[in-house]
């Protein structure tokens, strides 16, 4: 277990060192002391308020990462998580505001609509792939732009809150569809945020999603078939797994989870409870980075989401100090690029080691039984 | 496999679209639909898309899928904004190329040398490029007069413009030649005026950087299909092991492909900087992906990329000239009429299922035209992506991407 953890941590650690080196160089170029900058970053994140803000941001990131990871597990590049979730957030927000239900049902209703919309939008790419052989990277990129245009059109024309004149946004969700802040829970375990930040109530849903992802992936027949199809499509086909059906299932499941990405903002963020101009619209792309960094692992993606949110929070207060805030994006980008390169190198290295071991084994076997070798020329 | 379409089919299609656009112009009573001004803007907006498409073409022909086009364009815009402000407009073009090449080299380094998944690496470049651009803008432009973290102070001057003599009334040794196409356009004759408008848009007042783009397309056709280098580059994308067995270095070819690809994408960014005369954050606005779309719609061929970019450029250009409400109605009308024409062709060829689809969609188009009381220019925005999606789903069998594009290759592998 420890050895496995250590092996899993080597590549990200190496990538982190590279990312720190790259951002230090960038800081030096900009005439700032890297040490000073990192100290300032630490000061920003070293408070319970920052912890809450980081978790709040990490939650939708995590959901997006899981959505993308489900596709990745099957070698499906669901670049379209972004389009799936903005369309889902818009339609779920509009539908949730249009009905009145008792609180738990209301939340469930919004979640179901969001998952259905995300799944339906993803299904377009899935159907195109199995029926017409269209590469999902291409179709989801196009569907992202179409979703962007479609949401702008729908919120501007049909789902608009007529009471608000200047901006196009959906009506606010009623209180029964709003998830409460988890601050009382924090105080129960002795953490005092002091009312400076609210821990959003969507966190338990994200944790449940992570557990469900782990169980489905590692403990269910579907998860097994998914992993086999991703690892070796030929073996999967031989084992009687229908590749087309798996593609469709995986992409629809990925889309359904993607539909939940916007739910933390929609249901739990007091700033929103509606879909509009300010609603975050790029989390789906972040999810791709996180799935890559977390190697599609339920816990790995969670760590990546927290790291991502931490970098964003840490660099938030740099600008007034004269340190370029963009160092955060450079750190993230170099981290991701370094990580994928290091993963590849490690994988090649271990593949070479395995190949050598297999060759050695085969050699010793042929040495023991030379007659076999001659019998089959 | 069906026989390739004959040349005459394309001529009929071209003639048909001219007639349809002319009819749409007359019926919707909107001269700007096919005016020289509209086509001029279309050419201008098509140029960066076309460059991005050509960039993708070099990458994929040499065997690398380049999702990072958008990022490389962004690198192009920041370098072009910087050099254009420091050294002038022509150096902006050079700077854009260099900025793009940096992105291309990074992509080649990750995918060719380390075998990282091409989509992953390209995605990472799209992530990091805006960060680098913002970081550089912060270092370079903040505190300069007119400059800020989101835009450069502006280029020192702009490139000149060129008008073809006799056709569109350009100067010849100081003598203003007659504007023949302009005269035809003003007459407003059916189809003739529309063609004249299109031709005049493509020959009058062209900025020199757009001329460079046109030359690059012509040059690319020659280089890729008429030179040994082009053959080797394409072989690296089609069948790397065969190329390798003949002594071609696949790794080197793929690096060359990505350097050219990055340079062209960066130039696409520079063309945008030259258009607005300054670097503005986010000015590429997804044109890298639009370029990728033209690559697919254009079937991985320069002429196809140019045609796709022209179509998408027209959609973007026309939105700048015509009121969105009128525009959408006119375009819906044009699309419906095109579908009627397609239905007749299908009937002629006895392709009944196509006939039914075309007729049904045409009917829907006419109904939409009659009922469109609240059209929205979001539809114009999504049209290129919708077209691409339809093309890949319907024409998927006809499309032929390079066989090994996107697959890692190492010396000694069998593919």
Briefly note the CATH topology name of chain A.
ABC transporter involved in vitamin B12 uptake, BtuC
Work out the count of structural domains of chain B: 2
Main sheet: strands, sense, barrel of chain A: none
Given as residue ranges, the uncertain stretches of chain A (5+ residues, pLDDT < 50) are 372-377
CATH secondary-structure class of the largest domain in chain B: Mainly Alpha
> What's the architecture of chain A, going by CATH?
Orthogonal Bundle
Give a count of the beta strands of chain A, DSSP E runs of length 2 or more. 0
CATH architecture of the largest domain in chain B: Orthogonal Bundle
Instruction: Briefly note the structural class of the backbone of chain A.
Output: mainly alpha
Number of domains of chain A: 1
Measured by DSSP, the beta-strand proportion of chain A falls in under 5%
- How far is the first residue's CA from the last residue's CA of chain A? 44 Å
Share of residues in strands of chain B: under 5%
Keywords:
heterodimer; A: 377 residues; mainly alpha; ABC transporter involved in vitamin B12 uptake, BtuC; 72% helix; B: 415 residues; two-stranded antiparallel sheet; 16 helices; 70% helix; globular
Brief rundown of the structure:
The complex is a heterodimer of chains A (377) and B (415). By secondary structure, chain A is mostly helical.
Description:
The complex is a heterodimer of chains A (377) and B (415). Chain A is mainly alpha-helical. Chain A has a single domain, classed as ABC transporter involved in vitamin B12 uptake, BtuC (Orthogonal Bundle), CATH 1.10.3470. Helices cover 72% and strands 0% of the residues of chain A. Chain A is built from 16 helices and no strands. Chain A has helices at 2-29, 34-45, 48-72, 81-98, 103-132, 136-157, 183-188, 203-219, 221-231, 233-238, 243-258, 263-268, 283-293, 298-314, 327-368, 370-375. The longest helix of chain A is centred in the last third of the chain and has 42 residues, at 327-368. Chain A starts with a helix and ends with a helix. Mean pLDDT of chain A is 88; it is low at 372-377. With 415 residues, chain B is mainly alpha-helical. In chain B, α3 (69-87) packs across α12 (287-297). The two termini of chain B are 24 Å apart. In chain B, 70% of the residues lie in helices and 2% in strands. Chain B is globular. In chain B, the strands form 2 sheets. In chain B, strands 1-4 form a two-stranded antiparallel ribbon. In chain B, strands 2-3 form a two-stranded antiparallel ribbon. Chain B has 2 domains: 31-163 and 205-322, ABC transporter involved in vitamin B12 uptake, BtuC (Orthogonal Bundle), CATH 1.10.3470; 324-397. Chain B has helices at residues 7-28, 36-61, 69-87, 89-113, 118-140, 180-187, 192-203, 208-226, 228-238, 240-245, 250-276, 287-297, 302-321, 324-348, 352-371, 378-394, and strands at 161-162, 171-172, 175-176, 206-207. Chains A and B meet through α6, α13 and α15 of A and α5, α12 and α16 of B.
């Amino acid at each position: 277990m420890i050895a496995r953890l250590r092996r899993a941590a080597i590549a990200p650690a190496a990538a982190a060192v590279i990312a720190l080196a790259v951002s230090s160089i960038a800081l030096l170029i900009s005439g700032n002391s890297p040490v000073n900058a990192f100290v300032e970053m630490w000061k920003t994140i070293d408070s319970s308020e920052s912890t809450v803000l980081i978790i709040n941001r990490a939650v939708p990131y995590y959901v997006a990462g899981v959505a993308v990871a489900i596709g990745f597990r099957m070698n499906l590049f669901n670049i379209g998580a972004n389009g799936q979730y903005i369309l889902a957030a818009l339609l779920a927000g509009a539908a949730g505001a249009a009905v009145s239900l008792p609180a738990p049902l209301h939340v469930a209703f919004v979640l179901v609509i969001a998952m259905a919309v995300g799944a339906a939008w993803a299904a377009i790419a899935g159907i195109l792939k199995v029926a017409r052989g269209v590469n999902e990277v291409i179709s989801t990129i196009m569907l992202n732009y179409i979703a962007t245009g479609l949401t702008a059109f729908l919120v501007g024309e049909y789902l608009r809150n007529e009471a608000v004149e200047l901006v196009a946004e959906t009506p606010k969700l009623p209180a029964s569809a709003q998830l409460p802040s988890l601050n009382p829970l924090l105080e129960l375990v002795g953490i005092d945020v002091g009312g400076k930040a609210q821990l959003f109530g969507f966190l338990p849903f994200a944790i449940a999603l992570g557990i469900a992802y782990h169980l489905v992936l590692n403990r269910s027949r579907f998860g097994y078939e998914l992993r086999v199809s991703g690892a070796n499509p030929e073996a999967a086909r031989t084992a009687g797994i229908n590749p087309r059906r798996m593609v469709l299932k995986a992409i629809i499941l990925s889309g359904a989870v993607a539909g939940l990405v916007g739910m933390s903002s929609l249901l739990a963020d007091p700033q929103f409870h509606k879909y509009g101009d300010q609603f975050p619209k790029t989390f789906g792309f972040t999810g791709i980075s996180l799935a890559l960094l977390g190697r599609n692992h339920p816990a790995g993606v969670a760590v990546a989401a927290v790291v991502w949110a931490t970098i964003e929070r840490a660099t938030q207060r740099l600008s007034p100090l004269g340190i370029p805030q963009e160092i955060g994006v450079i750190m993230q980008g170099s981290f991701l690029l370094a990580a994928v390169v290091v993963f590849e190198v490690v994988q090649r290295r271990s593949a070479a080691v395995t190949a050598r071991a297999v060759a050695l084994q085969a050699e010793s076997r042929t040495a023991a039984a030379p007659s076999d070798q001659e019998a089959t020329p | 496999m069906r026989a390739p379409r004959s040349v005459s089919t394309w001529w009929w299609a071209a003639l048909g679209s001219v007639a349809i656009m002319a009819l749409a112009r007359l019926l919707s009573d909107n001269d700007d639909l096919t005016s020289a001004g509209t086509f001029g803007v279309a050419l201008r907006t098509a140029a960066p898309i076309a460059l991005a498409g050509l960039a993708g073409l070099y990458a994929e022909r040499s065997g690398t899928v380049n999702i990072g086009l958008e990022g490389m364009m962004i690198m192009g815009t920041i370098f072009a904004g910087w050099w254009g402000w420091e050294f002038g407009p022509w150096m902006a073009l050079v700077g854009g190329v260099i900025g793009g090449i940096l992105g291309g080299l990074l992509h080649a380094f990750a995918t060719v040398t380390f075998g990282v998944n091409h989509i992953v690496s390209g995605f990472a470049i799209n992530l990091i490029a805006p960060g680098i651009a913002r970081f550089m803008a912060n270092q370079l432009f903040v505190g300069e007069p007119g400059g800020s973290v989101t835009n450069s102070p502006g280029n020192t001057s702009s490139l000149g413009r060129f008008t073809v003599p006799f056709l569109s009334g350009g100067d010849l040794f100081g003598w203003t030649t007659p504007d023949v196409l302009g005269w035809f356009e003003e007459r407003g004759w059916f189809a003739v005026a529309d063609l004249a408008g299109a031709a005049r848009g493509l020959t009058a007042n062209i900025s020199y950087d757009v001329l460079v783009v046109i030359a690059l397309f012509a040059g690319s056709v020659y280089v890729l299909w008429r030179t040994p280098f082009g053959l080797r580059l394409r072989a690296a994308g089609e069948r790397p092991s065969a190329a390798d067995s003949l002594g071609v270095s696949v790794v080197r070819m793929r690096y060359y492909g990505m350097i050219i690809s990055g340079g062209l994408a960066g130039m696409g960014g520079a063309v945008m900087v030259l258009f607005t005369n300054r670097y503005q954050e986010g000015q590429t606005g997804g044109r890298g992906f639009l370029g990728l779309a033209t690559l697919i719609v254009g079937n991985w061929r320069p002429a196809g990329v140019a045609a796709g970019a022209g179509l998408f450029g027209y959609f973007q250009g026309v939105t700048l000239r015509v009121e969105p409400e009128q525009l959408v109605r006119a375009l819906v009308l044009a699309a419906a009429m095109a579908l009627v024409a397609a239905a007749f062709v299908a009937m002629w060829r006895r392709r009944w299922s196509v006939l039914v689809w075309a007729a049904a969609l045409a009917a829907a188009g006419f109904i939409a035209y009659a009922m469109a009381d609240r059209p929205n220019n979001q539809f114009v925005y999504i049209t290129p992506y919708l077209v691409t999606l339809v093309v890949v789903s319907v024409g998927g069998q006809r499309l032929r991407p390079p066989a090994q594009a996107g697959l890692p290759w190492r010396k000694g592998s069998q593919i």
